[in-house]
């Protein structure tokens, strides 16, 4: 049984981009040379555009097919990452290990850091991020303040906050969960 299946729903990305530009289907159809009914079917996931058609739609929307695919929603995805899966990210060293806990292109990213990493490296993410210390201890510098985190502590950082962190214990294990960089976060204080 295949435990990992991902089908991208590009229609949702096309619709979001079209609405962001405040364009009608008729305008996109005229710009792309595709029909309004076909574009409607694409947006409603009843038709899958060929690579060439997707490129034409992307051109009409002032973007690229790659960007539309990057912004596409996964359709009914279930993805299991087992503890012994070899899913390492760049940045690990012999003393450290960085493991991607969510594969593919989703709205949520999660990574596990074991050990330390380049403590001089500063991060600034577009969207919100959560750091959870599974084991050991770390120190995080954010907005000019230092935060000491131990096992079970959580630090939430809103998008745009510059920060860096370092392990202060040899057995440090940190879970980082973040909203995907391709997601346009909306700052809505009404909720």
Please provide a written account of the structure.
This protein has 191 residues and is α+β, with helices and mostly antiparallel strands. It folds into 2 domains: 10-71, Orthogonal Bundle (434 Repressor (Amino-terminal Domain)), CATH 1.10.260; 97-179, Jelly Rolls. It is 23% helix and 31% strand. The protein has 5 helices and 10 strands. It has helices spanning 10-20, 25-32, 36-43, 51-60, 65-70, and strands spanning 4-9, 73-79, 97-100, 108-114, 129-135, 137-142, 145-150, 154-157, 163-167, 173-179. The strands form 3 sheets. Strands 3-4-10-5-8 form a 5-stranded antiparallel sheet, with no helix packed on it. A 3-stranded antiparallel sheet has the order 7-6-9, with no helix packed on it. Helix 2 (25-32) crosses helix 4 (51-60). The longest helix is centred in the N-terminal third of the chain and has 11 residues, at 10-20. It is elongated. The N and C termini lie far apart (41 Å). Residues 1-6 and 186-191 have low confidence and may be disordered.
Structure characteristics:
single chain; 191 residues; alpha+beta; 434 Repressor (Amino-terminal Domain); Jelly Rolls; 3-stranded antiparallel beta sheet; 5 helices; disordered C terminus; RmlC_Cupin_sf; DNA binding; Cupin_2
């Amino acid at each position: 049984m295949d435990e990992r299946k991902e089908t991208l729903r590009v229609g949702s990305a096309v619709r979001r981009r079209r609405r962001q530009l405040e364009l009608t289907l008729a305008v996109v159809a005229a710009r792309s040379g595709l029909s309004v009914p076909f574009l409607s079917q694409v947006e409603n996931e009843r038709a899958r555009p060929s690579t060439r058609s997707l490129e034409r739609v992307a051109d009409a929307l002032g973007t690229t097919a790659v960007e539309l695919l990057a912004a596409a929603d996964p359709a009914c995805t279930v993805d299991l990452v087992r503890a012994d899966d070899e899913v390492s990210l760049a940045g690990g060293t012999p003393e450290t290990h960085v493991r991607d806990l969510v594969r593919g292109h989703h709205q949520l990213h999660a990574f596990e850091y074991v050990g330390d990493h380049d403590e001089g490296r500063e991060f600034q993410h577009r969207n919100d991020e959560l750091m959870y210390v599974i084991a050991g201890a770390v120190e995080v510098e954010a907005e000019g303040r230092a935060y000491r985190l131990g096992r079970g502590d959580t630090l939430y950082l809103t998008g745009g906050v510059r920060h860096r962190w370092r392990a202060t214990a040899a057995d440090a294990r940190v879970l980082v969960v973040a909203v995907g960089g391709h997601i346009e976060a909306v700052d809505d204080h009404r909720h």
